[in-house]
C-alpha cells in the first residue's frame, strides 16, 4: 500500500463518519422513540450529547494530539468511536444510548482534532491542495448523505444499523492508518490545559442540562437553577484559568478583537439557527405526516444539496469578495429560509412546504460555511491561526448543542400550550398527550382517542406540531438575521492573509454543514 492517496482515504473516511453521525440519527428518531420508549427529552439528549461532547473536547483533543502524537490519538479516537457505536447499536434503553453517544462524541473529537494536522504533515504543495479539496468535499457529502442513509438503514434494516454500520468502516480506517499514515507531533514543550478543559466542559454541559431541565420542569426547578448557576461559575473559572495559563486552550485576548469576537458569535449562531430545527422537522415528517424514513430523509436534502453545490461552485467566484460580506449575506439567507419555513408550514401542510425555505437556507449555508474559518484566521494574528481554527469549530459544535436544547424547550412548551388551549384533551391528560406528540408518539395519541373523536385527535396532532415547528423556525430565522447584520456591521475589511512562510498550527477546519 504505497499509494500517495491512501493516507487521505483513511483520514477522510474518519471525517465522513464523525460528521455523518450528526445527521444520520435525525430520520431514525421516531423509531428510536418507539423502540426504546424514549421521551422527548431523551430524544433531545440523543442528538445533543454527541455534539456537546465534540464541542467540549475538541480543543483539548488538539492539545493532546500535539503532545502524544496525532496518529496515535486519531487511532484512539477511531477505537473509541467504534466501541461506542457498538454500544449504541445494542443499547437496551435510552439511558445507555445517551451515555454511549457521549463517548462517541469524545471519540469524534479526537478524530476531528487530528484530521487536518495529519493532512498537513502528510502532504505538501499541490498534493496538499488536492487533499484538502477532497477532505472538504466529503465533509459536505456527509451532510447531504446523512438523512438519506439514515432513512434507508432505518427502513430496510433497523434503526440500530445507523450505529452498527460504523464498525466495518472504522476497521478499514484503522487498517489503512496503521499501514500508511506517519506519526507527527506539535512543537516541543506542548502541554494540556487540564483546568481550562475541565471548566469549559462543565460550563457547556451544565448550561445544556439547565436549559433542557428548565424547559421540562420549569425555570424554578432546583436542578435547573443549580445547573445554570454551575455553568456561570464554571465560565468564571474558565476565564480566570485561561488568563493565567502559559498555554491556554483559548487565548482570551483574541476576544478583545471585535471582528474575532463577532465571528465566534456568528459561528455559534449560524449552527444554532441553520440545523437544529431540522430534528423537529424530521419528527413532523414521520410521526405526523406518516412519511417513511427514506422519504423523510429525502425531504430535507434540499438544504444540504444546495449548500454542497454552492460551496463547491462559488469558491472561485467569491474569492475576491470580503469574507465578512459573504458570511453576513449567507446568514441573512439562512434566516430568510427559516422564516419562509415558519410562514409556509401549518396544520394542512405537507413536505413540499419545507422545500423553498430549505433551499434558500442551503444557499446561505453554501456561502457562509466555506469562509467562516478563513475569516476567523484573518481576524487573528498568524501565530494564533491554529487556535483560531479550533475555536471557531468549537463554537460551531457548541451552537448546535445549545440550539437543540433551546429550540427543543420552546418547541415542547408551544406544543403543550396548543394541546391545553384546544380543550380537546382533559386537563389531567394534556401534559402526557403533549409529550407524546412532541416525542414522536403522535400515533399513540390518535389511537387512544375514542372512535368518534379520532378525526379531532388527528387535527389536534397536526395543529399542535405545526405551531411548535412554526415557533422554532421563526426563532431560528430571527437569530440568523441578527447574526448576519452583526457580521456585516463589524466585520467589514478583507482580512490579511497569513504570512506566506509561516504555517499555522494545524487544527480542524470546518465541514460544509453540521
Automatic annotation (TrEMBL):
Transmembrane stretches, start-end: 43-61, 73-92, 98-120, 132-153, 159-178, 190-211, 223-241, 262-284, 296-315, 327-345, 357-377, 398-415, 469-491
InterPro entries cross-referenced by the UniProt entry: EmrB-like, MFS, MFS_dom, MFS_trans_sf
Chain spans, region Disordered: 494-514
GO BP, one annotated term: response to antibiotic
Main location: membrane
Alphabetized GO MF terms: transmembrane transporter activity
Sequence ranges assigned to domain Major facilitator superfamily (MFS) profile in this UniProt record: 7-495
Subcellular location field: Cell membrane
Protein's name in the database: DHA2 family efflux MFS transporter permease subunit
Amino acid at each position: 500500500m504505497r499509494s500517495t492517496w491512501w493516507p487521505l482515504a483513511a483520514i477522510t473516511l474518519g471525517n465522513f463518519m464523525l460528521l455523518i453521525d450528526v445527521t444520520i440519527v435525525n430520520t431514525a428518531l421516531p423509531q428510536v422513540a418507539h423502540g426504546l420508549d424514549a421521551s422527548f427529552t431523551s430524544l433531545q439528549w440523543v442528538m445533543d450529547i454527541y455534539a456537546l461532547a465534540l464541542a467540549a473536547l475538541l480543543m483539548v483533543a488538539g492539545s493532546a494530539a500535539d503532545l502524544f502524537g496525532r496518529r496515535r490519538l486519531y487511532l484512539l479516537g477511531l477505537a473509541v468511536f467504534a466501541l461506542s457505536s457498538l454500544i449504541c447499536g445494542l443499547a437496551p434503553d435510552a439511558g445507555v444510548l445517551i451515555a454511549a453517544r457521549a463517548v462517541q462524541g469524545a471519540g469524534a473529537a479526537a478524530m476531528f482534532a487530528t484530521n487536518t494536522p495529519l493532512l498537513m504533515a502528510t502532504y505538501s504543495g499541490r498534493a496538499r491542495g488536492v487533499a484538502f479539496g477532497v477532505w472538504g468535499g466529503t465533509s459536505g457529502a456527509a451532510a447531504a448523505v446523512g438523512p438519506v442513509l439514515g432513512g434507508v438503514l432505518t427502513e430496510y434494516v433497523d434503526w440500530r444499523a445507523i450505529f452498527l454500520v460504523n464498525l466495518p468502516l472504522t476497521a478499514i480506517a484503522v487498517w489503512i492508518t496503521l499501514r500508511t499514515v506517519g506519526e507527527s507531533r506539535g512543537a516541543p514543550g506542548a502541554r494540556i490545559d487540564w483546568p481550562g478543559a475541565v471548566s469549559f466542559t462543565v460550563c457547556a454541559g451544565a448550561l445544556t442540562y439547565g436549559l433542557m431541565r428548565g424547559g421540562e420542569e420549569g425555570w424554578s426547578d432546583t436542578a435547573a437553577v443549580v445547573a445554570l448557576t454551575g455553568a456561570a461559575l464554571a465560565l468564571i473559572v474558565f476565564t480566570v484559568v485561561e488568563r493565567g495559563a502559559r498555554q491556554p486552550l483559548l487565548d482570551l485576548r483574541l476576544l478583545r478583537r471585535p471582528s474575532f469576537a463577532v465571528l465566534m458569535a456568528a459561528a455559534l449562531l449560524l449552527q444554532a439557527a441553520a440545523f437544529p430545527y431540522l430534528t423537529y422537522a424530521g419528527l413532523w415528517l414521520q410521526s405526523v405526516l406518516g412519511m417513511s424514513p427514506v422519504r423523510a430523509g429525502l425531504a430535507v436534502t434540499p438544504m444540504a444539496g444546495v449548500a454542497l453545490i454552492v460551496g463547491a461552485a462559488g469558491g472561485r467566484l467569491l474569492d475576491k469578495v470580503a469574507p465578512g460580506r459573504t458570511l453576513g449575506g449567507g446568514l441573512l439567507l439562512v434566516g430568510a429560509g427559516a422564516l419562509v419555513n415558519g410562514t409556509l408550514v401549518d396544520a394542512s401542510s405537507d413536505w413540499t412546504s419545507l422545500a423553498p425555505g430549505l433551499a434558500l437556507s442551503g444557499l446561505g449555508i453554501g456561502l457562509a460555511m466555506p469562509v467562516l474559518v478563513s475569516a476567523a484566521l484573518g481576524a487573528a494574528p498568524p501565530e494564533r491561526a491554529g487556535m483560531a481554527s479550533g475555536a471557531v469549530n468549537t463554537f460551531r459544535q457548541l451552537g448546535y448543542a445549545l440550539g437543540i436544547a433551546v429550540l427543543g424547550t420552546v418547541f415542547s412548551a408551544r406544543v403543550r400550550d396548543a394541546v391545553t388551549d384546544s380543550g380537546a384533551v382533559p386537563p389531567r391528560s394534556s401534559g402526557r398527550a403533549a409529550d407524546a406528540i412532541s416525542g414522536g408518539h403522535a400515533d399513540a395519541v390518535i389511537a387512544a382517542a375514542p372512535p368518534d373523536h379520532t378525526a379531532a385527535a388527528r387535527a389536534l396532532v397536526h395543529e399542535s406540531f405545526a405551531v411548535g415547528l412554526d415557533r422554532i423556525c421563526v426563532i431560528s430565522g430571527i437569530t440568523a438575521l441578527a447574526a448576519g447584520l452583526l457580521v456585516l456591521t463589524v466585520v467589514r475589511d478583507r482580512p490579511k492573509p497569513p504570512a506566506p512562510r509561516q504555517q499555522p498550527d494545524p487544527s480542524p477546519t470546518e465541514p460544509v454543514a453540521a
